[in-house]
Design a protein that fits this description.
- The complex is a heterodimer.
- Chain A has helices at residues 20-29, 73-89, 119-128, 169-177, 226-235, 244-257, 268-279, and strands spanning 2-9, 12-19, 42-51, 54-59, 95-104, 107-112, 132-135, 138-142, 149-151, 157-160, 179-183, 186-189, 202-213, 220-222, 237-238, 260-265.
- Chain A is of the alpha+beta class.
- In chain A, strand 1 and strand 2 (12-19) form a beta hairpin.
- Chain B is built from 3 helices and 6 strands.
- By secondary structure, chain B is an alpha+beta fold.
- Chain B has one domain (13-85).
- The chains are: A alpha+beta, B alpha+beta.
């Protein structure tokens, strides 16, 4: 039986209609996402549809890509992604970046990269080194503020198992100490508020780092030409509510206000120590 | 017979970033990044031009380059812009 739950977003409620067990999994993955007040106006709806044993999601606020998700956590993750996409689509002043982020020094270091670039592992390696994680996969950015700010979503941190062979003993102990539920290759880490920012926490963006794993034995920061930076940022941003010309202008504007570099590295744990030495904890 | 002219689609928006260009297609909602070479071709097509005219300009711009290489690169760039529906020929 489908269940209907209203989640708070923008100035109202995003109604999610999905099987009860999928909504329960969504709330485990996004435990801090507040429910909408009972009298909140419905501003968007998300529906889940089963197709040949896989799940697809539709949103009234934007057209999600036509991905199909296996049952279980993959589907719950897909539903979380659709909820994030819907929330972004409802807020013209914000965009989403495909990025992990952590507070280093006086603001956020944003780690941008495609799937497999190492965002999540590097983000968690930073948390294990004492930095405060802002998110391991998505960051909501108010790009027109001065300075631009990033808003945390309070999603649970996830780690892919088995750990990389290069993971040092201290990181293995960190993962063990914070191990939560696991399914398949995915392990939830239960981090306290000192290690991960809660839903809605905001901080200024201090730097954008484009991850280039495998490009250097020792971690180093390198300049990137502005056109390549802009092309990369466009590919890693999500703003379905913005006309494409506006999206291009706003991405270009973000690069005017936040310094950006390439992080060339091979080992996430060495890169985390390097970033903390460069920018502080 | 008149040679086919290549022309830009008039509704394509452009933003210059250093020597490169970013083109915006309002129909497909796509953004295209043109490197300096492709951007030079796009700028040349501010006025409709036929293939021979374009090749002449490129040959003059790269006098040291191998002529076959210039032709191949030009053909490739024209094909790509056409495939992306940024220019039309006719």
């Amino acid at each position: 039986m489908p269940e209907t739950v209203g989640f708070a977003a923008a100035d109202g409620a995003v109604t999610v209609e999905a099987p009860a067990d999928m909504i329960a999994s969504l709330r485990r993955l996004a435990p801090a996402w507040p429910l909408a007040a009972p009298d909140a106006a419905e501003i968007a709806t998300i529906t889940a549809r089963s197709e040949n044993g896989a799940w697809r999601f539709a949103s009234s606020a934007y057209a999600p890509p036509p991905y199909r998700f296996d049952p279980g956590w993959p589907a719950a993750n897909g539903l979380v992604g659709t909820l994030i996409g819907t929330a972004v689509a409802l807020e013209p002043a914000r965009i989403a970046l495909h990025a992990a982020s952590a507070r280093l020094g006086d603001g956020l270091t944003v780690l941008l990269g495609d799937n497999g670039a190492g965002k999540s592992t590097l983000g968690l390696a930073l948390a294990a080194e004492g930095a405060r994680l802002w998110g391991d996969d998505r960051l909501i950015v108010a790009d027109q503020e001065a300075p631009p700010t990033g808003r945390a979503l309070g999603l649970v941190a996830k780690l892919r198992r088995p750990l990389p062979r290069s993971a040092p003993a201290a990181f293995r102990a960190f993962a063990q100490d914070h191990a939560g539920p696991a399914e398949g290759e995915m392990q939830v880490l239960e981090l306290d508020a000192s290690r991960v920012a809660g839903f809605g926490a905001t901080a200024a963006l201090r730097r954008l780092l484009f991850l280039d794993r495998g490009a250097a034995d020792r971690p180093r920061l390198e300049p990137i030409g502005r056109p390549d930076l802009l092309a990369a940022l466009i590919g890693l941003s999500f703003a379905p509510h913005l006309p494409v010309q506006v999206r291009l202008r706003r991405m270009n504007g973000l690069l005017d206000t936040v310094p950006a570099q390439r992080l060339a590295y091979s080992d996430s744990f060495a890169a985390a120590r390097f970033l903390i030495a460069e920018f502080g904890r | 017979m008149t040679a086919r002219c290549f022309r830009r689609r008039p509704d394509i928006g452009e933003t210059e970033v250093d020597a490169d260009l970013f083109l915006v297609d309002p129909r497909s909602e796509e953004i295209y990044h043109l490197d300096a070479h492709a951007a030079g071709l796009w700028r040349l097509l501010a006025e409709p031009r036929d293939r021979a005219e374009i090749e002449q300009v490129f040959a003059a711009a790269f006098p040291e380059a191998d002529a076959d290489r210039v032709r191949r690169d030009l053909d490739q760039a024209l094909r790509r812009l056409q495939a992306q529906d940024l220019i039309v020929a006719g």
